[in-house]
Structures are given as C-alpha cells and as structure tokens.
Write a structure and sequence with these properties.
single chain, about 260 residues, alpha/beta, Rossmann fold, 7-stranded mixed β-sheet, two-stranded antiparallel sheet, 9 helices, disordered N terminus
Amino acid sequence: MSTMIKSENVKEQYSDDGNLSARISLHAKHSTNKQGLVPWLFEQYYFSQDIRILELGCGNADQWEGRVESLPKGVELILSDFSEGMVDIVSGKYVKETKVSCQRIDIQNIPFEDEAFDIVIANFMLYHVPDIDKALMEVKRVIKENGKFYAATNGNGELRSFVHKAIKKFKPDTQAFAHGFSFNLQNGQGILSKYFSNVERVDFEDSLAITNTEDLIDWIKSSVSIEECDVDFDELYDYFEDIRARDGVISIPKECGLFISKK
C-alpha cells in the first residue's frame, strides 16, 4: 500500500471514534486478564510533579477519564491526534480540565521546540505511520534529556493472524489481515534502539475468550477499510459461531506490551 493511500485510509478509519470503539469493545468484553490494559499501562507510567506530557494518537482519550484529576501538581498534558474528528471529541470531553489541552498533530512533524516534553506517549499507532523513522526522530527531538517515550503495541501472532486463517478457508488467496504490524512486539526494540539509549519491553499477559460471536464480527467490520478486503460476514459468522457452540468460547491468543525508551 502506498504511503498516500495508507495515510488516507487511516484518516478515514479514524475520522470519528466509531471504529476505534468497536475494536476496544471486543477486548473490554472478552479479555481474560480482568485488570484491563489501560489500568496496567498507567501502572507502568511514572509521572512526577511539574512535567509536560504529550500523547500522540490519543484517539478518543477515554484512557484519561478519571485519571486527569489525579495527575501530580503542575503537570501539563497535551492530547493530540492526526484526526480532526478525534481532536474535536477530545476537546469537548476535557474542555473544563485546566491541565489538559488538545490539538491536531502529525507525529512526523511535531510542532514544538526541541526538548519540550518530559514524557511522550504513542500507543498502538506507530504501525499506522507512513515514515516511522521520521516520526521517531521527531519524538526524540521533542523529549528532554533523560525523558521517556512510552509506546504500546501488539505482536503479530494474535487476533489478526487468527482472522486471516479463518478468511482463507473461504478465500484461499485473500490478503486480508495477512500482513503483520510494521511496528510490533517482535521488532519494536530494534527500531527504537536506533533512537533511544535504553529500551525496555514489558509484556501484558492476556488472551481473548469470546462468548458473543457478533462482537468478533463487529471487530472485523471495524477493520475492513484498513484491510481493503472483500469479506462475506455471514460465512464468517457461521464459521465462528460453530466454534463458539462447540467450545463454549472462541479462544484467541493476544500479544501486547509496552516499550519504555529513555533518551
């Protein structure tokens, strides 16, 4: 997929939070780790007083609900996304929070001076970036010396692979969900090490035990414009529903973790 097509495809997918919410919903309902990914992520973050935090690709910023109020004294949080639609949602959501500001930012061209932030966060979005090297150079530039970059991502041996194998049963030549994430748990440390002096990987142990087949179909529907694939959802529903009826659940492994990089 060309850089321009990829960028426009992602922009369409995230013009509002509908597709994102559908994908989050599957994991929220059916993950076996009941702590939840977002509470786990906030356990990994370290926020001290009087720091500046920039989140890139914040989506609808639901992850900050109930947490902004407990940020340490003097913290400034800038929530940003490439999508104007997401920024509008976030701006409305946090309009009364004096610690929070929102703006549209392309990670490949961050509009701040050098060493402007103590912490930068970019979760589950680096694999969407057309030029990841340019993006990471920008992230490194705006982080202060000894500052941290938090980047959560998925591995390549999980839900997408499971769905690809299912679709292949009906369309042997399909490329739907065939391609792994360009930035993933397997290659992320090597990519980040080119820009940061210390890169630590922390895994979040989890899996899916899906008890409602329609939720899985909704996840696939929310992803098909990115995948640009022709899927017969009735066939897929019947296939997955047979598994659920036989086993009680549709069991799918998950690979998910966080890279903590220090400048």
